Each structure stands twice: as C-alpha cells, then as structure tokens.
Amino acid sequence: MRANYKLQRLFVPHDLAAGVEFELDKGQSHYIARVLRMAEGAPLLVFNGRDGEWAAHVAAVGKKAVRLRVADRTRSQPATPDLVYAFAPLKVGRLDYLVQKVVEMGVGVIQPVITQHTQMAKPSLDKIQANAIEAAEQCGVLSIPSIRPPLKLEQFLGGWETDRRLIFCDEDTETDNPLPALQSITETRFCLLIGPEGGFSDDERRMLRALPFVSAIPLGPRILRADTAAVAALALVQATVGDWH
Predict the structure, then answer these.
(1) For the whole model, what pTM was predicted?
(2) Domains plus CATH for the chain?
(3) Are the C-beta atoms of 113 and 221 separated by less than 8 Å?
C-alpha cells in the first residue's frame, strides 16, 4: 500500500498499537501546535520504524506538550532495505540534500567513508539522522536507515561480506554506459560507493579495481557533482538490479 500524502506524518520513538497514548517531544509539540496549528481531534500518521504506520489524532494540546492517541494501523512494516550507501562526506548544505535523497531512493544503511580527497572527515551523525528522519516523514518511507560511524576506505573494505557486490562510480572508465556492468552482476545484495568531489585518488582506484567483489561503473559523459552522482547512480542500481527491477 502506498503512503497517504494528504496527512502529516511523524516519526516517533514510542511503541505503537491501537489505543496507545503518548506525548510528543518539545520540538514536535511546537511544530504540531504552533506551526501547523493542529487542534484536538486533528488526524495524522505516526511511525517508528518497527511497527508500521498508524492513524492517530491529537488527544490534547497542552502548554508544554501535545498528546497523541493511536487508532488503527494503515500500513504494515516492510523489511528494511538491504542497500548500503557509502560516500565521502560533503560540505554541510549539500550533505543534507544528499542524505534526504538517498533515503527517498530506498537506502537501508548510510556509511560515511573517508578517502584521500574527502572534504569533511567528521560529519555530524546526529544531523545525518535528523535529515534521514525528515526525508522519511515527507516521502512515506517507514524504515529509517542505519547511520554508521565514518570509516577510512581501507577499513571499510576490510572483512567484506563476500555475497555483497560493491558498485563504485569511476569517472575513469573506458565507456560512458553503466548498463553492461550493472546487468552482469549476479549478486542480490549491494553497496554503492560514491567518491568525493575531487574523485578517488589513483591509488584508491587501483585498490578498488583489484578487488573481486567490486564493479566499476561510469555515470555518462559529463562530470557530476557528488550529490547529483548519488541520485543518478542509485536510480541506475535500483532500476537494473535493485527493488525497481
């Protein structure tokens, strides 16, 4: 069942079941009562990443908090996507955009990877989490991706799961067409790796290409910014070997 985009959706940490009541935190209470100006009885949808999506309504609007009451489940909880998105962190504004888009594209794990040309070595995991939640609320996603701590590229590649194919975007391929490489993949579990604005170094590219679980793909004849490359590559992966296929 597709998401209902007519109602406000909120991610909450509480267990959800028919008849459950709980108070929203300070930020969400302010948003519901002061920004959206919802009154008692106003309908909305809530989800927690575990129990599916539920219809709820505003039970009370207090001075300090808004209280919700849960009614019926509208969508069951789907399996968490097994697609890993690994990337060299970008500057803050574009990192926010990137996280929102990869959540919309069905990523289940977000993994920052530190490369030789990475712009930001210590991204805020809390901010990445907040952006992932906001994207899930807005686009109907029920599973919040797991946000993993940054790893250096060598650490990231160590102890790799042999049944997971690593697809990395390489601007130095001999062709502009990514489809032959993607269509030759036989695995059913994937990780997409996007490099930094300056690209992977020559040493990093050689290291990646030497690994048996790696497939290198181009992204057409033009140079793409890293955040644009993320959306383009995820669309290709989902359409050829992912959950659009």
Answers:
(1) 0.91
(2) 9-75 (2.40.240.20), 84-240 (3.40.1280.10)
(3) no
